[in-house]
Amino acid sequence: MSNVTPMMAQYLEIKAQYPDALLFYRMGDFYELFFDDAVAAAEALDIALTKRGKHLDQDIPMCGVPVHSAEGYLLTLIRKGFRVAVCEQMESPEEAKKRGSKSVVKRDVVRLVTPGTLTEESLLEARRHNFLAAFATVRDKSALAWVDISTGEFHVMPLTQVRLGPELARLAPSEVIVSESQEADLAETVSESGAALSALGRAAFDSQGAEKRLCSLFSVGSLDAFGQFTRPEVSAMGAIVEYLEITQKGKLPLLRPPVREAEARVMQIDAATRRNLEITHSMNGGRAGSLLAAVDRTLTAGGARLLERRLSSPSRVLEVVQARLEAVEYAHEQTRLSADLRAALRKVPDLDRALSRLGLDRGGPRDLAAIRNGLEQAAGIAEILPDDMPDLLIEAKQSLFGHDELLDLLDQALIAEPPLLARDGGFIAPGFDAELDEMRQLRDEGRGVIAAMQSQYQEQTGISSLKIKHNNVLGYFVEVTATHAEKMLSEPLSDGFKHRQTTANQVRFTTIELSEMETRILNAGGRAIEIEKRLYDSLKGEVLSRAAELAQTARALAEIDLATALADLARGEDWCRPRVDDSRMLLIEGGRHPVVEQALRRQGGEPFIANDCALGEASDIWLLTGPNMAGKSTFLRQNALIALLAQAGSFVPADSAHIGMVSQLFSRVGASDDLARGRSTFMVEMVETAAILNQADDRALVILDEIGRGTATYDGLSIAWATLEHLHEVNRCRALFATHYHELTQLAGKLPRVDNATVAVREYEGDVIFLHEVRKGAADRSYGVQVAKLAGLPDSVVARARVVLDALEKGEREGSAKPKALIDDLPLFAAAPAPATNAPPKASEVEERLRDIHPDELTPRDALQALYELREMLQKDG
């Protein structure tokens, strides 16, 4: 067995404290990884795996990443599911050697990097929150808390374990903390949300200890100042604080006081509905193609995050919705003011995240400059905002004031474009600190300072040939010729000039002033950096002392940005202000799908066909029939998205809209399986349908597409029939129910609040033309064979399908459509169709006449006469 080196012994000791994390062990300009950590990191990062020394007679695997580019490697590792313990050198090698030549540099972990605790600008998406959540249960009651340490947002809400999945889908946290006792039960729910799971001991969730931690964090004697919190809520919040203390090694972020939310205040949207409606992410997981991407015209990172929160959590409080709509309408009407505001907002940096980095001591001069630049724009925006505005904008304007003193300080202290790191220096503006200016002058203009002293000494002594020189032995010294030596050694000059050295032709002296200046010149560079670091700490302290007010300003800027962005969207897309009230109406005239409409425009294709929807008056449920590809799913989704946008406080894509408050939004659209959990497409459909039927209340809006299609015809029809009746009789909610089971249309005559509607099509010479118009009434057929032909099925297959379909329909009319009889009666499929099937149709008389016409040879009178003749032929053929 080989001996363990002192350095490797230190590594193993530190690694033992973080067995579940990769250890980034600082060695000079690199973070090194050893043993299994090195093997895992080398594969994940695609970097070289080497070796360093031996342990237990085995080579020690090693890999490393440069410190200056470590953030990119950290991001890759975090995205691949790793946690990273960052171990820094706590002293310099020179300091370590003072304890002995073989002493190892002191090292310690300064931070545990996890998905929910990222703060670096390069590791985060600027326009999205990065939430860390915690779920706690105390005596059969539960709560969920969540925090974004990069912005300070801190929220908590009571909820049952059943509601955990939908809430995680709403928040999309990066990481969820649970108690070790609940880890096994909650692992699947957390995994489905895409978050990493972290377990803490039960002590972290103790509500009494949690209350003490929270009171200490916010420097209060009681949490009552922030609201009345239940024990599970305190437990969840306390677990988050405990986790932050562990991962941040005691450097807690700047968290805002916790805000208590209630389920009843926001529209409830489950995970399946969010996925089906593609609210913040499209089906492929990206942002492109989502509702958020289609409506996002915000100019600031804070405004973009606020928009995502609003779309993820539409309000159910009428006063809140109205206030938001009034702000957007004001910005919509005041086009010149909105343009000026948006011009200023383009220059607003991310105040929240700059403030957070400063609070965690991970910031730099550039973050101070971001605060300064943000406050400058806030002051400018406050000046152009009038006093006669909606309440929401007035409140925002009031939060922009009160920073003049801090702004003046930062403006005087900082240069225009500071470096990223304080240790680089050069970020304090000239004239701000006299000592710093002097050190910089000595550092940058040492020769000029010495030349000035030389002139001073020449004047003082009257010796014009006196020189100040420098060598590596004496440093700086005053030199005169031997002829002037006697004068320098006599009174009164001898008191100031001390003899140093005599050479053959020269005599050298020094002065106390020159020695001090030499020391200062030699140390000027280092001293300048020290002064700048001290000033940086002072400026950072001034900023952090006003953290609460700055956070309020950041929120106000985000609110103004969102209002003007939604107004710009409404102007550009011709959207209207919806009427929102507590009724059960869903009356939409000329409604459009915001994402599909934009996609059609980008493709330069056909315009989007707008449609009406009327629920809540005479009917609560529309039973929608029509062929595939006609636009049924689009119609369903667009009405759900219009209701969501309205309650998020936005104008909507319609000519007019009257939205009665929607409590829950449910969508069962599209087909997918869940093979990992052993669920077929039909099983997933039934699970999602069951969730709707068990939860929807009378203020819910439900959109259902093709219920029952994944099983046998009569089974599917039966399930769809029973589902429709349950929605009508039990849930009593508003619903759009699309189906291919035309038998269901008969229910409109039996269920008083059900109306039939259909997507219109036109059939021409065996082909189907989609009109995309929704009309009252029922479709008489599904046109499936025609759609199959459009999809490119071989002509022989299409022809065969027509034959089988005709036989089935004839048998059903005659009451004899038995599968066995059908198989016996129909001839077998012929892969090579008869030539007559594909023979070109005979040209009509109109076509023959058109072939004989040569437009270039016709006079205007002849052309008009030919047009009359063609029209007569067409009428005769028809």
UniProtKB/TrEMBL annotation:
Region named Disordered: 833-855
Species of origin: Lutimaribacter saemankumensis
Protein's UniProt name: DNA mismatch repair protein MutS
Gene Ontology terms: cellular component: cytosol
Function: This protein is involved in the repair of mismatches in DNA. It is possible that it carries out the mismatch recognition step. This protein has a weak ATPase activity.
Annotated gene: mutS
Signal sequence, renumbered to the chain: none
Gene3D superfamilies xrefs: 1.10.1420.10, 6.10.140.430, DNA repair protein MutS, domain I (3.40.1170.10), MutS, connector domain (3.30.420.110), P-loop containing nucleotide triphosphate hydrolases (3.40.50.300)
Family recorded in the similarity comment: Belongs to the DNA mismatch repair MutS family.
Biased composition (Low complexity): 833-843
Keywords: ATP-binding, DNA damage, DNA repair, DNA-binding, Nucleotide-binding
Residue span(s) of domain DNA mismatch repair proteins mutS family: 700-716
Biased composition annotated in UniProt, kind: Basic and acidic residues: 844-855
Residues in coiled coil: none
Gene Ontology biological process terms from the UniProt entry: mismatch repair
GO molecular function terms noted in the UniProt entry: ATP binding; ATP-dependent DNA damage sensor activity; damaged DNA binding; mismatched DNA binding
